[in-house]
Amino acid sequence: MKPQEQKDRFIVMRAEGKSYSAIAKELGISKSTCTDWEKKLQGQIAERKAEQLEQLYSSYFMTREARIKKLGDTLGTIDGALASADFSQMPPDKLLDYKLKYTQALKEEYIATGRSKSLPEEISPAALMDMLKDLLERVRAGEVDTVQANRESMIISNLLKAYEQTELQAKIDALEAIVGGRA
Fold first, then answer.
1. Other beta carbons within 10 Å of 108
2. pLDDT along the chain (183 residues), means of 10
3. What is the pTM (predicted TM-score) of this model?
4. Are 36 and 5 within 8 A, CB to CB?
5. How far apart are CA 179 and CA 39, in angstroms?
6. Which residue of 33, 37, 60, 147 is most buried, as measured by CB atoms within 10 A?
7. Residues 6 or more apart whose Cβ sits within 8 Å of residue 99
8. 45 to each of 20, 28, 136, 142, how far by Cα in Å?
9. Of 32, 30, 29, 35, nearest to 14 (Cα)?
10. How far apart are CA 182 and CA 22, in angstroms?
């Protein structure tokens, strides 16, 4: 096996989680070579691991869309069972418990696709306050999850800080102009 082929195989084997001993034996190299290659090829190994994870996610329906569909299908099945259930023969608490759990799991998969307020043409404290109010309303309405709300509020806060710094600099410049005119 050529040296480059050995390195390529090393990347694949390390990404699969194989030990240095197993790799050294299969490739006919020393463990110290494995250590050296690990350091040099770390980025390629990480990329290969990511590719393998993505393949696993796809093959086991781990994508968000697949989970939402699967949860929705299961919730539909539970709803059908509840609708036709003879509650005198089956414990309804179990079906209701499953329904609540699947409803909650489906709700956790929600991503807001609705409105997102665009930035105003002129940024002012009042405009930024309006953006914060809008964000709060969307959070309360369940249109935005906490992660997205945190991101948006951080952006709005940064805009407010930038606005305040710009205003402060303008005041400093005006004061310097006044003081400089007296000298």
1. 10
2. 86 91 92 91 89 76 73 87 70 80 80 60 83 87 82 88 89 88 65
3. 0.36
4. no
5. 60
6. 37
7. 75, 78, 79, 82
8. 14, 20, 43, 40
9. 35
10. 82
Angle 154-159-161 from CA coordinates, rounded to 5°? 95
CA-wise closest residue to 159 among 117, 115, 129: 129
Nearest to 156 by CA among 126, 136, 129: 129
How is residue 28 annotated by DSSP?
Answer: T
**What would the two tokens of residue 10 be?**
């090393």
pLDDT tens-digit map of 141-177: 777 788 888 888 898 888 888 888 988 999 998 888 8
Nearest in space to 109 (alpha carbons), one of 67, 59, 138: 67
Are the CB atoms for 109 and 64 separated by under 8 Å?
A: yes
Structure tokens at 125: 């404290």
Q: Give the pair of three-digit tokens for residue 133.
A: 């109010």
Gap between the Cα atoms of 2 and 163, Å rounded: 61
